[in-house]
Amino acid sequence: MPTRHARFITLEGIEGAGKSTHLAFLKEHIEAAGVPLVVTREPGGTALGEKIRELLLHSADNSMCADTELLLMFAARAEHLNKIIKPSLADGRWVLSDRFTDATYAYQGGGRGLPAARIRALEDWVQQGLRPDLTLLLDIPVAQGLRRAGARGAPDRFEREHGEFFERVRAAYLAAATREPDRFRVIDTAPEIPAVQAQLRAALAPLLAG
After folding, report:
1. Helices 142-150 and 163-179: crossing angle, nearest 10°?
2. I need a surface site. Which of 47, 52, 170, 207 has the fewest CB within 10 A?
3. Three-state DSSP class for 207?
């Protein structure tokens, strides 16, 4: 078994940035290095979290209060941390999560306009200092990302938002990456897939070497 310290890696980005495609590549790449890995997602990851995900993403009612949305995100996250993320890391398994708290700052903070201090208070309460070791931000211009997302089928509740919403989300993500350059790696996903995968391999190399 590998002797590497267990790592918590998150994948972030707006709609159409290619998270599903590149999550599969990351899983294969990490496991090929002999690392025990758990792949999960937010909102979701647990039985209860998946029910909350259904409410958040597939409700026909677009009038959900932004505070309700925020609290549901952290309710699912509390379950996710205690049932999946923390036990996996304690067992020496790496965790790769499709979204985590940076998405909350981007979508509920940047997109919905909720105060960062309100989100931070919930983050401190629920996470107790646990944060990702590495966050891979898949970045793409909003118009290009929404064109890609539109080709996938019926949009979910967030995908039905307007372009200005996603411009704010993207700006919040990039601002976070600027504030925390040691944790974030910004991956340009506008090029063809091989070029994106080369960036991902380079971003993972220091962790896999350790």
Report:
1. 120
2. 47
3. helix
- The C-alpha atoms of residue 193 and residue 183 are separated, in whole angstroms, by 23
In angstroms, what CA-CA distances link 93 with 6, 9, 55, 78? Answer: 6, 11, 30, 19
Per-residue pLDDT of the chain (210 residues; tens, 9 = 90+): 444 689 999 999 998 899 989 999 999 999 999 999 999 999 999 999 999 999 998 876 677 999 999 999 999 999 999 999 999 999 999 999 999 999 999 999 999 999 999 999 999 999 999 999 999 999 999 999 988 877 666 777 787 888 899 999 999 999 999 999 999 999 999 999 999 999 999 999 999 997
Look at the pTM and tell me if it is higher than 0.90: yes
Q: How does 45-66 read in b/e, with b if 16+ C-beta sit within 10 Å?
A: bbeebeebbebbeeeeeeeeee
DSSP 63: T
**In 1-140, beta strands by DSSP E:** 8-13, 37-41, 94-98, 134-139
DSSP 154: S
Q: For residue 150, give the amino acid letter.
A: G
Residue entry with tokens 């998150």: 10
Query: Which two three-digit tokens encode residue 149?
Result: 């997302």
